[in-house]
From TrEMBL:
Name this polypeptide is given: Flagellar P-ring protein
Annotated keywords: Bacterial flagellum, Cell projection, Cilium, Flagellum, Periplasm, Signal
InterPro entries: Flag_FlgI
Coiled-coil segments: none
Principal localisation: periplasm
Database matches in Pfam families: FlgI
Residues spanning the signal sequence: 1-29
Organism: Herbaspirillum seropedicae (strain SmR1)
GO biological process, one term: bacterial-type flagellum-dependent cell motility
Length: 376
């Protein structure tokens, strides 16, 4: 147990140090494809209702799911089978389950193309493993049918090991059908309706938008791109569809160095993990929490070289971090007043995740922590 605690402290300190080192590294150039998307090129969600048949007695209990019986009767009537009136209450459909079918229709999908679907039970079926989904129309948000789904359902993670000595059971009320839906209708695209295309950055950032505009104008000529705001960029593109596709292919591979994001600290309150997207500096503050007291003092000094040294006058920030867990026990860390050092020192004295959460929230409320704090 003692070695476990020591290892946990060492891992926590090493993790914080690695995060601080990674945050201090300069940003690397990335492809525009990874930073932005083209307006109008998107997926569309589809949903439908269907029946799963061929189950081994693990279907819906008809006394508690009357919609399953109604669906079976309606399906049989459409197939020309007359069901006597009054027999619905006596029907035992243990091999049938009602399910919702969902899928994502990719951009530029054409009729005849196959897409994957997910089948999820909406009744009280124990399992849909080994079942077959009957023909189910998939509709979009406009109520139009865009695909038809049907096929054998595969439930992932359900089955035995290679040696047959153990069995791993996963969620049995949902499964997938690879290529289980056929696209019947194409979604109209407005990509080629004008000589302008619109780029949408994944993150709203004026610095990145400005750098994207500069990179595109440098690559394709002046006045090719103009930023509308911190997220939307309008780009002039060729009219011809062939030239436009080639232009978009080249545009997606333009390298852009994104701007530095706003400082953000993410804390997992259950494990005590602290993740920072960059080096977060702290101002002077003092926090008292139970038997823990944290004092951070930043001393701004001026370093001035001698008259003949040939150097330049520069500001130097020396910070003193004092963390006291027990009377007479004080840890002092000298250097820059960074959040990474505070977390490292707190881990060294065995602070709990609740202690970290309370201290960081207090620093944020006091204005010492100038970063967005997100607790997950």
């Amino acid at each position: 147990m003692q070695w476990t605690r020591i290892g946990r402290k060492l891992l926590g300190a090493a993790g914080v140090a690695a995060l601080a080192l990674a945050a201090a590294m300069p940003a690397q150039a990335e492809r525009l494809k990874d930073l932005a998307s083209i307006q109008g090129v998107r997926q569309n969600q589809l949903v439908g209702y269907g029946l799963v048949v061929g189950l081994d007695g693990s279907g819906d209990q008809t006394t508690q799911t009357p919609f399953t019986v109604q669906s079976v009767i309606s399906m049989l009537q459409q197939l020309g089978v007359n069901v006597p009136t009054g027999t619905s209450s006596n029907m035992q459909l243990k091999n049938v389950a009602a399910a919702m079918v969902t899928a994502n229709l990719p951009a530029f999908a054409q009729p005849g193309q196959l897409i994957d679907v997910t089948v999820s039970s909406i009744g009280n079926a124990k399992s849909i493993r080994g079942g077959t989904l009957l023909m189910a129309p998939l509709k979009g948000a406009d109520g139009q049918i865009y695909a038809i789904a049907q096929g054998n359902i595969v439930v992932g993670g359900a089955g035995g090991s290679a040696a047959g000595s153990s069995t791993v059971i996963n969620q049995l009320s949902a499964g997938r059908i690879s290529g289980g839906a056929t696209v019947e209708r194409a979604v109209p695209s407005s990509l080629g309706s004008s000589d302008m295309i619109v780029l949408e950055l994944n993150d709203n950032d004026f610095s990145t938008a400005s750098r994207v505009v500069d990179a595109l104008n440098k690559r394709f000529g002046n006045e090719t791109a103009v930023a509308q705001d911190g997220r939307v960029i309008r780009v002039r593109a060729p009219i011809s569809s062939g030239d436009r596709v080639a232009f978009l292919g080249a545009l997606e591979n333009v390298d852009v160095t994104p701007g530095k994001l706003a400082a953000k600290v993410i804390l997992n309150a259950r494990t005590g993990s602290v993740v920072m997207n960059q080096s977060v500096m702290l101002d002077t503050c003092a926090v008292s929490h139970g038997n823990l007291s944290v004092v951070i003092q930043a001393d701004n000094a001026v370093s001035q070289p001698n008259a003949l040294a040939g150097g330049q006058t520069a500001g130097v920030q020396n910070a003193q971090i004092s963390i006291n867990k027990e009377p007479g026990k004080v840890m002092l860390l000298k250097g820059g007043a960074s959040l990474a050092e505070v977390v490292k020192a707190l881990n060294a004295i065995g602070a709990t995740p609740q202690d970290l959460l309370a201290i960081l929230q207090a620093m944020k409320a006091a204005g010492s922590l100038r970063a967005e704090l997100e607790v997950i």
